[in-house]
Amino acid sequence: MTRFAPLEQDAARGRRPDGTRRDWPAIVVCLGLAALAIGFPQPVLATEQTGRSDRMLAIGVIAHDRGPASDHHENGVDLNLEIQFGPLDFPGTPRPHLGITANFSGDTSVAYAGLGFRLHESSRWFADALLGVAVHDGPLHKDPTGCRLYSDCGFGTRFLPRFGAEAGYRLSPAASISLFYDHMSHKWIVSGENEGLDHIGVRYLRQY
Questions:
Q1: Cα torsion 93, 94, 97, 101: sign
Q2: pTM higher than 0.85 for the full model?
Q3: Which of 7, 62, 71, 160 has the fewest CB atoms within 10 Å of its CB?
């Protein structure tokens, strides 16, 4: 079986030669999201003003690299933070969002932006489809032999298409819980290495 040299493996997984992990990217993206939340203007809403905020804050506990398209080459329990803005006055009334999924185990952290499209709406239940783009701090390239034999590859590009889904239940008019899934990869779009990454978990959403 082909194995990476220790330093090569550490570099691929984001560790420094002294064995410490790269937690700084997660901190940077958290600070960046907070800055964007403060400075990002509220978009034109598709609904009338009701005196209640149309912005939502989501916080989630996410299983890293777990899901239907996962190859389980990375690990961890991630923190997901997301800001959702009011629906746009466009066909389908998509809701813009900005978010991060921060990994604290030395693997890949992600910042993303996109649109959510409401697929189902009732007094208690809702379901959304998610579409956008993600930027990550994971390795772009890995050992060619490991990639070919074990599908343990780099991500290939720094920016990746991202899609997902969310199904939720309203606890109150202002608060919900949900089951959340997303996937990012460039398969069928860009040739070359394409590791891909899944996240699946639960989130709490609240108006603010």
A1: positive
A2: no
A3: 7
